[in-house]
Design brief:
single chain, mainly alpha, five-stranded mixed beta sheet, 21 helices, 5 strands, 5% strand
């Protein structure tokens, strides 16, 4: 009874432990999308919070920010979102342990796999950042927890999977895993056809209902083109906000980048991720009962997601976060097999062998922890390593409050959020120099002075700003700020 109660407590302990680990190393990397979302949260701009590709994250982020505010914790929205993602990452790790225990794996295996996922490079790195992917992982783990039940409930499975799709549309690729779980019910007297219909129709109904509600309440599109643009989301990056596929040029390039990012998702040193992938292959040969089902489900999961992410920025590690639960559940049967007591040995020898294997598995976790901490997490925890952040803070000190600052790239969100200055987005004026000059004159006449950095001038803008006229306003050893001449 004590062992059973301790097992029930393990997921909570893992959640708390992982959260404390994440809290010890807050990130100052500050991704573009995270800062953009923080701006929308602080403005209460729901039209931009309900993004067509990841509708739910902005709503959850806003609600969490308001909850902390009402509780007296008046944090900037960016830090609120980073705390939220750390909570989500820790919760998903605890759910991993809960799922494995529910599938009757040992406490050691549950702890090994959940902690391994928590300190994997992609998972740990982006559990410290404001981003949309960890919310989907939490709901995927809840869906998986339902799926491993002896008789999964199609309505509950549909509900959790619908939330995962609302967290990010790419999680629709979890459908094959859900179908595998429902068709497994044939062995326990279930009706897979009926359950499949219930699951698909219920999940579709939930997703459609929330999208319709968001469209009516916040997006309020006026034309079919507005609806299309909203649903395309991050894919609408072509000329004139048209669809643009974001993949490598050739098949071999896509495979190369996908394989490389597969290793990096586990460790910043790809070769350290190789043992986990090897375990995924070995699992087929050592799995029995639900262990074999976990292995099959893991590979179905990986292949389904690879259909998109091998073709959509396969080099981008952030898209591999959702692969990590699949990899670590496939490691569970192997960890269980290695740590099992050999039946042919004496009790003393058996315990010694089991202890050795557990030590080796523990050493692997320690290696992942040490490498990812040293090469990624610690550098990201130092604000001086974020050059755009340091520049934004310098611009705040070097310019008046009514200043406008020319920006591109990260500056589009860093300048308004960290400098509290108005951004003049040069990206909108490439090839339209006359329109840029006209806009600068309009700003100077009605709103305030305009500034531009020397670094930005070197990115193709020096000629147009030289033609207007500039004077040096501030200087650091590696940074120069110019004030644009006024009429």
């Amino acid at each position: 009874m004590q062992e059973k109660n301790a097992g029930r407590l393990d997921p909570l302990l893992i959640t708390v432990g992982v959260l404390l680990l994440y809290a010890a190393f807050p990130s100052y990397l500050h991704l573009f999308d995270g800062v953009a979302c923080a701006i929308a949260v602080e403005l209460g701009d729901f039209k931009h919070l309900v993004h067509g590709n990841h509708l739910l994250y902005g709503i959850v982020g806003y609600a969490f920010h308001r909850l902390l505010f009402l509780a007296g914790l008046k944090l900037p929205a960016l830090w609120t979102l980073q705390v939220l993602d750390s909570l989500l990452g820790a919760a998903a790790a605890g759910l991993m342990a809960s799922t494995l225990l529910r599938a009757r794996f040992s406490r050691f295996t549950a702890a090994f796999c959940s902690l391994g996922m928590a300190v994997s490079y992609a998972y740990w790195k982006w559990s410290l950042e404001a981003n949309v992917y960890l919310l989907g992982v939490v709901f995927l783990m809840l869906a998986l927890r339902e799926a491993v039940d002896d008789r999964p409930n199609p309505y509950a499975l549909a509900f959790w999977h619908a939330l995962a799709m609302l967290a990010h549309a790419a999680n629709a690729l979890f459908v094959p895993v859900a179908l595998l779980a429902l068709w497994r019910r044939r062995d326990s007297g279930g009706d897979p056809r009926s359950d499949t219909a219930k699951y698909l129709l219920t999940a579709a109904a939930w997703v459609c209902a929330v999208y319709v509600a968001a469209a009516v309440m916040w997006v309020q599109p006026e034309t079919a083109s507005d609806v299309k643009l909203w649903l395309m989301g991050s894919g609408a990056l072509g000329p004139g906000r048209t669809w643009r596929w974001q993949g490598s040029e050739t098949f071999l390039e896509r495979v190369y980048h996908w394989v490389l990012s597969s290793g990096k998702a586990v460790s910043v040193l790809p070769w350290l991720g190789a043992p986990l992938w090897a375990a995924a292959y070995i699992a087929f040969f050592v799995s029995r009962g639900k262990g074999w089902l976990f292995t099959l489900a893991g590979w179905v999961w990986l292949y389904a997601y690879s259909a998109l992410f091998m073709n959509w920025q396969p080099y981008n590690i952030i898209y591999r976060i959702t692969d990590l639960p699949a990899l670590w559940i496939m490691a569970a049967p192997v960890a269980e097999w290695l740590a099992a007591t050999p039946r042919s040995s004496s009790p003393r020898t058996a315990e010694a062998v089991r202890s050795q294997w557990r030590s080796l598995l523990g050493a692997y976790l320690c290696a992942l922890f040490a490498v990812n901490l040293s090469f990624v997490i610690l550098p990201d925890s130092r604000p001086e390593n974020n050059a755009p952040l340091q520049e934004a803070l310098w611009l705040k000190a070097a310019t008046p409050e009514n200043a406008w600052i020319a920006v591109e790239n990260n500056g589009q969100v860093y300048v308004p959020y960290f400098s509290h200055r108005s951004p003049l987005n040069l990206h909108l004026y490439r090839g339209r120099e006359a329109a840029l000059v006209s806009r600068i004159r309009e700003i100077q006449r009605d709103e305030g002075p305009v500034f531009v950095t020397g670094e930005l001038l070197d990115q193709g803008w020096r000629q147009v700003f030289t033609s207007i006229g500039m004077s040096e306003a501030a200087r650091l050893p590696k940074r120069v700020l110019y004030r644009v001449a006024e009429l």
